[in-house]
Design brief:
Elements (H helix, E strand, L loop, with lengths): L1 H13 L8 H12 L6 H12 L15 H4 L5 H22 L12 H11 L8 H11 L1 H18 L6 H16 L5 H13 L2 H27 L6 H27 L6 H8 L21
Helix pairs in contact: 3-5, 3-6, 5-7, 6-8, 7-8, 7-9, 9-11, 9-12, 11-12, 12-13
């Protein structure tokens, strides 16, 4: 409840103006007041999350909806926007300023700094679910998504953990499934995957692709196990069926992509195709507006 009171105070003091031209001035002022150095990404991330966090609608006590970041997947784009649209707008406004000439002499600036803020956001209050990380990235746009993926790639290469890329695999799981839940084409996510694969040394590409596929199949098995323990008419069972349908959509498309690109030279694509049961796509024949793809 204290966090909710602080949120109301911050919004009343720094976000009450209706003049859009002054929003950035007040945002920078808020950061300057609470993070004087302007360099502590963890504190900036907490501040941005606090001031944009939605209130829990079902709560009469006024609690912030923060715990959903670590234990609840948005069912659709409407839910994702309720949680993250304002955060994405504030983040993108700060990013544009940090990348502008106005900020060139005001360190820290640039993309690396903003990516570090994203990384810190995704750890508040604990590590976010991949689907929630993906939801925020998709709302921020393709360029930000690619920057964060490259950041994870560099982190993995620095750790030199053989040919394993679990964090990249988990994030692509989130990106594929949430793009499906948003009823958008999967092509932009495939483009991201291809670009990351090209950046890797040849001897590590298969390990990266295996990590993406392993994340998808492991999640599918977990959903199946959870569904088996539920009453088929319960709300939880319906959620499992929905998750399974979106995973199937992504996994089938991924298996086809592996074959088309010749990624699965070891027969992994054929095994992948066999592993995914026939399931009606949750997108059905819904027309998708090209302007609704993942773009800034």
């Amino acid at each position: 409840r204290d966090a909710a009171h602080l949120r109301f105070f911050l919004r009343a003091l720094f976000f009450s103006t209706s003049c859009k031209e002054k929003h950035m001035t007040w945002l920078l002022t808020m950061i300057k007041v609470f993070v004087p150095s302007g360099c502590e990404v963890d504190k900036i991330a907490k501040l941005l999350l606090l001031v944009t966090a939605p209130m829990k609608r079902s709560s009469k006590e006024g609690f912030l909806q923060l715990h959903d970041n670590i234990d609840a997947v948005p069912a659709c784009i409407r839910v994702a926007k309720f949680r993250y649209e304002e955060l994405s707008k504030v983040f993108m406004s700060l990013r544009r300023f940090k990348n502008s000439k106005k900020c060139s002499n005001d360190p820290p600036s640039g993309r690396d700094f903003m990516v570090q803020i994203l990384s810190s956001l995704f750890k508040e209050p604990e590590d976010w679910l991949p689907e929630n990380k993906a939801s925020l990235l998709l709302l921020c746009g393709l360029e930000v998504t690619k920057e964060y993926l490259k950041y994870l790639l560099n982190q993995a290469l620095l750790l030199q953990d053989g040919n394993k890329f679990p964090k990249l695999g988990d994030l692509f799981l989130g990106l594929f499934t949430m793009q499906s839940r948003f009823q958008r084409k999967l092509d932009p996510i495939f483009t991201c995957m291809d670009e990351i694969a090209i950046l890797l040394p040849l001897d590590k590409r298969q390990g990266f692709l295996n990590s993406v596929w392993d994340a998808m199949t492991n999640e599918y098995v977990e959903v199946l196990d959870e569904e088996a323990d539920l009453d088929e008419n319960s709300a939880e069972a319906c959620l499992c069926k929905d998750s399974k349908a979106h995973l199937c959509t992504a996994m089938k498309s991924l298996a086809v992509r592996f074959i088309m690109k010749g990624y699965a030279a070891d027969g992994g694509a054929a095994a992948a195709d066999a592993a995914v049961p026939e399931t009606q796509s949750p997108m059905g024949t819904t027309a998708v507006d090209d302007n609704d793809d993942m773009e800034e």
